[in-house]
Amino acid sequence: MSPQRTGPATARGLLAGLLAVTVAVSGCSETIAGRPVAAPGAGPAEPAFPTPRPSISPPATTSPAQPTAPTSPTVPGGAIPLPPDERGYVFIETKSGQTRCQINEESVGCEAPFTDSPMQDGEHANGVHITASGSVQWVLGNLGAIPTVTIDYATYDAVGWTIDATVDGTRFTNNGTGHGMFVSIEKVDTY
Questions:
Q1: Cβ-contact 153, 57 below 8 angstroms
Q2: Is residue 181 assigned to a domain?
Q3: Is residue 25 part of a domain?
Q4: Nearest Cα residue to 105 out of 170, 191, 177
Q5: In a 10 Å sphere around its CB, with 0-12 CB exposed, 13-18 middle and 19+ buried, how is residue 74 labelled?
Q6: Where is 32: in which H helix or E strand?
Q7: pLDDT 10s digits, 157-186
Q8: Domain count, the chain
Q9: Cβ atoms < 10 Å from Cβ of 4
């Protein structure tokens, strides 16, 4: 059996195919630094994926001989600690399931179907963000499939913020500055 010879047209086709594969593979290996920010109407809403959502309920009451010490001088006694993840964030969902928030030492950001939020880029804002210094910003956004912990109606301590969750809404107060916000579907009050 003799080896098959290829003509110039076959060789060019093979070379073009190899170049196309090389370009396709090299295009997949680049990374672009930055943080993605979606503009309003920039595509469909991010899908919701089921994530484990453990509930954190108030601890059983302790006897008077065993008082619970606060984690800092400004944290109410008996506040339930919410430990941060490896990046310093705590993600919560209210008992009603209507409000989700991400908390770190510098700020708290919550998303909810607010009934009276200001307009942002022609749409009602569905997020509010407050810093420890008291700066407030209304935003359009989606926290995505964050690993939230469902909180009960109780008081919690998370990365320097006291969270007081009630049936009427949730109050976030920075333990160092005293700034914060009260968040409910009907209103947001900042202080």
A1: no
A2: yes
A3: no
A4: 177
A5: middle
A6: none
A7: 999 999 999 999 999 999 999 999 999 999
A8: 1
A9: 6
